Structures are given as C-alpha cells and as structure tokens.
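Hi,

I'm pasting everything inline rather than attaching a file, because the server keeps stripping attachments. The sequence lines come first, and each chain or strand is labelled.
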Amino acid sequence: MLKTTFKPYYAVIFTSKKKKTDPTYVSMAEAMIELAKKQPGFIDIESAEDEIGITVSYWESLDAIAAWKGNSMHQIAQEMGKNDWYKYYKVKVARIEREYSFEA
Amino acid sequence: MLKTTFKPYYAVIFTSKKKKTDPTYVSMAEAMIELAKKQPGFIDIESAEDEIGITVSYWESLDAIAAWKGNSMHQIAQEMGKNDWYKYYKVKVARIEREYSFEA
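And the predicted assembly:
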C-alpha cells in the first residue's frame, strides 16, 4: 500500500473568554498575529470567536513555540492579557499526528 | 523538583467554512455535540465561529476518535456536511502534550 509521508508538526490551542471588548485588545491581537507570522518555525494561524475565542497556531517544532512564548513583545501582551483582557484562558500544546481535508 | 504527572490525550481540530447558514445545519450540529458527549472516551468539546468555524473535541484515545468518526449517525452528518454545508473543512488529529491555564 502506498503511504504518504507526513511530517508531524505542532499546534498551540488557545481558548479564552474575555472580560469585555477592549479596543486596545483588538489592535494588540492583530499586532501579535502579524508578529507571530514573522517568527522562525511559524506555519499558520486560525482564529474564531463568539461566546469564547479559539485561536490555533501551527509551528514546526516545540522550540519554535517556546521561542514565541518568550518573545519580549509577546510577553508584554501576555501580561496585558492576564491583567486586563481575559476572564480565563487555556493553552494546550499538541503534536499533529494526522490530517485530512475536504473542499466542495 | 516536583513534577506533576500528565496523561496525554487527543484533540480533533476541525476548522471549516460554510457555504451559507442553514437551519438544518444548526440543529444537526447541536445534535452531533450531544451525541459526541455520550461516546466512550469523550472528554470535552469547544467551539467558536465568525468568518470560519473552529471546533476542538478532546478524547482519551485515538480509538475513541476512530469510533466517533465511524458512528453511523455521525457519518450521515458528515455526508450532509460534504454535500450541503461546507465550502471546505480541515481535520487535524493531535496529541496534547502539555497544557496550562489562567483564571482572573
């Protein structure tokens, strides 16, 4: 049987609930997405929000994730998130093992 | 150093874009969430939607995920999804390796 090779990569699943809508949050969130895209090992980011927010970012390695977590601008945003924006958030680091897709 | 034990578990990251809002979709989506919750090995499910939809379900094992994918009611919903609802969807199966959270 022909088996396609699949190179595992990593996801950060960030689920959150915000205290209130804050214009500073919106511009900071956009800035962080742009900054994330410039990091080594960044692959993609997807985000949706209604009652809760879910953002999933994809990375080539755990080292790339650790470097992004430690980025100094990102750390400032993380502090603002804790102090001002989030009622709660949950972060899960996961290894993508398999994927498939459908397009109409 | 004290190290807490962490039992790995699995996530299905489902990202999608719908063709249009369809009342049948809404009730089927709710029914599928209720049905998923009753499956062996189900842990949790989180969902958010704006321009795209992101649903992440969490499971105890890959076997539990495979069983849910093969569930006959779920298979009917999957077919309706392909035929009627989704412009595209992407499914990623991932192993959660680490997690942390914050609560204000």
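The longest strand of chain A covers residues 86-103.

If the labels don't parse on your end, tell me and I'll reformat.
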